[in-house]
Amino acid sequence: MRIFNRIVMILLLAGLFVLGVYAVVYAFDLFGYSLSSLLDPIKAAGSGAQGFMRDVQSGSLAPLAIVVLILVALLGLILLILELKPATPRRVRMDKGTFVTRGVVQEEVSKAAGQSPDVLGHSVKTQAQRKTGARVDLEAKVRRGEDTGAIQRNLRRTVQEYLGSRGIPVSKLNVNTVEADPRQTKTRVQ
User: Fold this and answer.
1) What is the pLDDT of residues 72-102, one digit of tens each?
2) If I label 175, which of 28, 48, 117, 183 is the partner at 20 to 30 A Cα–Cα?
3) Which tens digit of pLDDT belongs to each residue from 150-168?
4) Beta partners for residue 175, in sequence order
5) What residue spans define the domains of the chain?
6) How many other β-carbons are positioned within 10 Å of the β-carbon of residue 148?
7) Which residues neighbour 181 within 8 Å (Cβ) at sequence distance 6 or greater?
8) CATH class of 91-184
9) Is the entire prediction scored with pTM above 0.70?
10) Are 128 and 89 in contact (CB under 8 A)?
């Protein structure tokens, strides 16, 4: 939404600049324009708006105009909801007033996953949440034919204990195991 706000502010400020230039040109009678001739385009635009409002009041709008008005109202509602929704935090909340970056959480999870002899390789994704703790998605590569359920449980316990000893809370830990060929992973033999 910050980009949208910037675009709106740029357009608003550009419009104010153009209005300021027009005001200077008409106020000092530059280029043959006088202040009295400024009202003619305003009256013309006002008469078009009056005609549109008259059609709205009488209920004789074209179907296309009704659809456009509904779409504009829905777009405004969607943008309002997106503007009021708080942004996702960038840092992981540890305790009251204590934060840690997502990169630190990723490094610590990688260290914990690297301690397991059954894991050939892994990838970690972390996401900060509004509540205490981080959401961690850990994908571990294991040898074919291994008991993936047992490895998953052991890896989950290992990561939770390791992060608990470091004081890093994890609100949700997803551990997925993927069977991989040991020749195509970082860690080939353990």
Assistant:
1) 888 878 877 877 777 777 888 777 778 888 8
2) 183
3) 888 888 888 888 888 888 8
4) 138
5) 2-84, 91-184
6) 18
7) 144
8) alpha beta
9) no
10) yes
